[in-house]
Please model this.
Amino acid sequence: MDVDRILATMNDSQVDYLLIGGMNFLLRHEPVLTFDVDLWIDDQETNRRRCERALQTLDAQWGEADGDWGDVAARDPGWLDRQPVFCLTSPSGAIDIFRAVAGLTDWATSRACASRDATANGTAFWGLSDEDMLLCQLALEEPYQKPQRIATLQRVLRERQRGDDA
Amino acid sequence: MATMRDWIVWESAKRLRHWDRAEQWRVLQQTISWAERQAKDRS
Model:
């Protein structure tokens, strides 16, 4: 998977996004096995069009149903308006696009407390804050929660609080 | 009305049906190598 290419293409296309999910946790805390890059985009029409163009640049594929699976480049603008989440493939790896995230109410609020970070190759990205990552996990039904991830986030936040209090 | 969880399950399953199994292994191997580099370079 070429995570750097995915993030760099989103950056170059001026998509307002936050890296969420396993890849964000992996980059900021500890290794977890993940197949995809999860991106929560600001759900504004202009941003959705920018995201569509970025996905086209990445040669991504998606279908509304099995019968029309194919290059997103062949789709008319506006296809990202149709549903709340999209799971795509691309030569750079699997990409999930979220227009909404359970447990979080407002993209701009989460963006305001997000972390600016960079991969080892120097690709900059905005990652969901630890507090919001924890909220996302706790919003999931128990069978879908990741206990190890929750424990790590709670420990990190406790340690940070102690540091702030000292 | 479909919940977000319904959408994720439905979308993930659809992607798997259109994602070559060998390609999935390739992505997984690349991701592990990439993640190892992140851990080494960012520590």
Remarks:
- Strands of chain A lie at 17-20, 36-41, 61-62, 70-71, 85-88, 94-98, 115-118, 124-127.
